[in-house]
């Protein structure tokens, strides 16, 4: 059989992966190395050369788009339909399994799938039915807990029974939720995988059927699998099924949502006969960009190891811009993008990536001023975000109690026991008597025609708005915003969402304070709050660029995974911003932050720009953070510093970098006068092993911040600490 059409366009490593006869294959596919190509050609090889039946192949990926692309390529290569092939996402394939075996799974034939919003509403009803305080136990938080347990394969009855009030309360909610779903044949996303795993685990005949059916299992983005996904795969594979997993441990950036990097790190130990193949030739980026990426990721420990290279030229050096503050940084980025556009490049060829969603506000304002069309990829504009709208609605009610839209938005946000029945009463009185919902609420509270519980809940909201209005009287705009997000409980409400999403909402609320502090009213003689609220409404009303319009791409680093752009600008490359300050307190987080930097760098095809601000207003306060360790990790010879055409004063305690193609940082940033460097692993005679996070001071008074594996973060005087480099 002529196999040339299948493998003649592959490089040596790709060809080795596609044609391997080994039962278990681990393909470490570096960024831009053609992993999808390998997966598709492997399936074609199995079908066309090894004569495997298409229906005997199971291929799992993480997005429907990737699954459709795989099926389409197979059909084009082999000219065969792919309907009989099991190619899809984890959730899609689990749903297919449950659809075919609904009875064995203990479900009704037409079982209903709950999306995330449906699930949250149901959890809220469960909490209300249990008579629990919704303010103390928000539905979002309970939903996060339930999904986290399911990702680990843990049913409610197996949740550890401890004296911890948090665990006890959520175990109770989880059990009631599980019972309700079982009685009503409801299945959420986490349940799809958990139930699919359980029916195979508990039914030997069914398991044997599928183990015989699937002779080959292929898994994409293996580094992103969680506990239950991997357990399901291992069950299906059994002893005889061949398994190829493709992934990149250096791009594992979703630990905060349950992904286990250990799955890919330990695969060779789980399957002793594993053949490991490294795809290191990159077809995306220039040599300079790849050298920078390799230098950054090499600082991580426990890597499976690979080194990206390209046959392309080295290309342009990496540009580094040191901004005076975040406004200067945003102005520079806007000017840089505009200049590229004027030189004949499309806006859509450029992307601005940032660590925190909250950074987008200042960047958006700069793009609007420069008349640059932009699109927030995978997210919303700052003033369109749910948490920002909530905070602004509270401020609007302080100005105008008769704002029904704002009233409805926050009357039960955070949850305070004002349900739909109570709101229906308010709406009825409002409509029948021709008054606002606020006035209708006062009337209902005064007349006490509702239940005591509903009346008290509505009265508490009325009191809250009255208290907030009194509290903000005479305050500066940023102080009014602080009161709105703290007094109303919005910060704690959104923090309860946990994980990266909850923290992003809290960051955005605190960034609102910064927006208020930086705001300059058009009319200094008029009240400032109404002017600010009007501007926020107008900015929210400015629609993002149309989907097909040429526009600058703006997104978080997490959203950028899998994408590529000729120009990438990494904004906010500072300590405590990137790496995020939270990474200092959690084991493994700093290494995940470094992997995120690696992902960001490798999104760039031709040109990479990094920017940082010497002074940044974060959450209303000015911070002087040092340049990110991820910038320091890049060899000097790869970087050229971009200088502004204007003189700017340096903030106190900061020595500016020199111009030209080399750069020098002050010793207070690098810790050179201490003998240690940021990110260095050290040993302490009492606290054990740790990683250096920060420096402060000079000479005999120099202090170093070390995150110890067993003791957490501590500040130590270097001259007394007896630290040893390891």
What does this structure look like?
The chain is an alpha/beta fold and 726 residues long. 45% of the residues lie in helices and 15% in strands. It folds into 5 domains: 4-102 and 193-281, P-loop containing nucleotide triphosphate hydrolases (Rossmann fold, 3-Layer(aba) Sandwich); 112-184, Arc Repressor Mutant, subunit A, CATH 1.10.10; 296-381 and 542-665, Rossmann fold (3-Layer(aba) Sandwich), CATH 3.40.50; 384-536, PCRA, domain 4 (Orthogonal Bundle), CATH 1.10.486.10; 673-725, Thrombin, subunit H, CATH 2.40.10. It has a 7-stranded parallel β-sheet with strand order 11-12-10-13-14-9-17. It has a 6-stranded parallel β-sheet with strand order 3-2-6-7-1-8. Helix 4 links the parallel strand 2 (57-61) and strand 3 (86-89). The radius of gyration is 28 Å and the shape is globular. The model is unreliable at 645-670 (pLDDT under 50).
Briefly note the structural class of the backbone. Answer: alpha/beta
**Shape category:** globular
Spans of at least 5 consecutive residues whose pLDDT stays below 50 are 645-670
- Name the average pLDDT: 86
Write out the strand line-up for the largest beta sheet, numbering strands in chain order.
11-12-10-13-14-9-17
């Amino acid at each position: 059989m002529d196999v040339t059409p299948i493998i003649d366009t592959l490089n040596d490593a790709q060809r080795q992966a596609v044609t391997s006869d080994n039962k278990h294959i681990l393909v470490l596919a570096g960024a831009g190395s053609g992993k999808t190509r390998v997966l598709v050609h492997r399936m074609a090889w199995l079908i066309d050369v090894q004569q495997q039946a298409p229906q005997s192949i199971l291929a799992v990926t993480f997005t429907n788009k990737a699954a459709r692309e795989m099926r389409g390529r197979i059909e084009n290569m082999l000219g065969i339909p792919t309907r009989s092939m099991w190619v899809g996402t984890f959730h899609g394939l689990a749903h297919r399994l449950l659809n075919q075996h609904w009875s064995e799974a203990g479900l009704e034939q037409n079982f209903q799938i709950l999306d995330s919003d449906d699930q949250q509403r149901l959890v809220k009803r469960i909490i209300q039915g249990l008579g629990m305080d919704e303010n103390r136990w928000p539905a979002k938080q309970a939903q996060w807990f339930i999904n986290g347990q399911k990702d680990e394969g843990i049913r409610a009855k197996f949740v550890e029974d401890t004296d911890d009030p948090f665990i006890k309360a959520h175990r109770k909610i989880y059990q009631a939720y599980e019972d309700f779903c079982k009685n009503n044949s409801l299945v959420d996303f986490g349940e799809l995988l958990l139930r699919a795993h359980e029916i195979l685990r508990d039914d030997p005949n069914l398991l044997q059927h599928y183990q015989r059916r699937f002779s080959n299992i292929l898994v994409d983005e293996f580094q992103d699998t969680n506990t239950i996904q991997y357990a399901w795969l291992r069950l299906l594979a059994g002893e005889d099924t061949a398994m190829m997993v493709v992934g990149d441990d250096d791009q594992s950036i979703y630990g905060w949502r349950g992904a286990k990097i250990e799955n890919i790190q330990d695969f060779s130990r789980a399957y002793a006969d594993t053949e490991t193949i490294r795809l290191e030739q990159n077809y995306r980026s220039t040599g300079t960009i790849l050298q920078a990426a390799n230098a950054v990721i090499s600082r991580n420990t426990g890597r499976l190891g690979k080194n990206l290279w390209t046959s392309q030229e080295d290309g342009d050096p990496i540009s580094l811009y040191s901004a005076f503050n975040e406004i200067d940084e945003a102005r520079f980025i806007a000017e840089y993008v505009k200049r590229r556009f004027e030189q004949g490049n499309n806006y859509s060829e450029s992307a601005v990536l940032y660590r925190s969603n909250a950074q987008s506000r200042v960047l958006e304002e700069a793009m609007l001023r420069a008349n640059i069309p932009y699109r927030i990829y995978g997210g919303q504009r700052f003033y369109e975000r749910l948490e920002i709208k909530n905070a602004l609605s509270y401020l609007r009610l302080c100005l105008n109690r008769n704002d029904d839209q704002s009233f409805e938005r926050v009357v039960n946000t955070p949850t305070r026991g004002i349900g739909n029945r109570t709101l229906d009463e308010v709406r009825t009185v409002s409509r029948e008597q021709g008054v606002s919902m606020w006035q209708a609420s006062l009337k209902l509270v005064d007349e006490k025609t509702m239940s005591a519980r509903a009346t008290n809940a509505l009265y508490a909201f009325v009191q809250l708005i009255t208290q907030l209005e009194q509290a903000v009287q005479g305050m500066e705009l940023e102080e009014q915003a602080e009161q709105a997000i703290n007094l109303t409980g919005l910060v704690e409400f959104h923090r309860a969402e946990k994980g990266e999403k909850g923290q992003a909402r809290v960051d955005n609320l605190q960034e609102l304070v910064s927006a208020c502090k930086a705001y300059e009213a058009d009319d200094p003689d008029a009240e400032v709050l109404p002017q600010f609220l009007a501007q926020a409404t107008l900015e929210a009303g400015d629609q993002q660029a149309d989907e097909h319009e040429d526009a600058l791409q703006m997104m978080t680093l997490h959203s950028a995974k899998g994408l590529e752009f000729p120009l990438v600008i990494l904004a906010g490359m500072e300590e405590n911003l990137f790496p995020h300050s939270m990474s200092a307190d959690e084991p493994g987080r700093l290494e995940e932050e470094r992997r995120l930097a690696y992902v960001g760098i490798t999104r760039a095809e031709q040109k990479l720009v990094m920017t940082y601000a010497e002074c940044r207003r974060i959450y209303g306060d000015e911070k002087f953070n040092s340049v990110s360790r991820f910038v320091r990790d890049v060899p000097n010879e790869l970087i050229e510093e971009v200088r502004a055409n204007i003189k700017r004063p340096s903030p106190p305690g900061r020595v500016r970098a020199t111009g030209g193609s080399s750069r020098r940082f002050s010793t207070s940033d690098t810790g050179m006068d201490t003998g240690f460097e940021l990110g260095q692993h050290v040993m302490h005679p009492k606290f054990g092993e740790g990683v250096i996070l920060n420096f402060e001071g000079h000479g005999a008074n120099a202090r170093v911040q070390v995150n110890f594996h067993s003791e957490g973060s501590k500040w130590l005087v270097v001259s007394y600490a007896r630290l040893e480099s390891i």
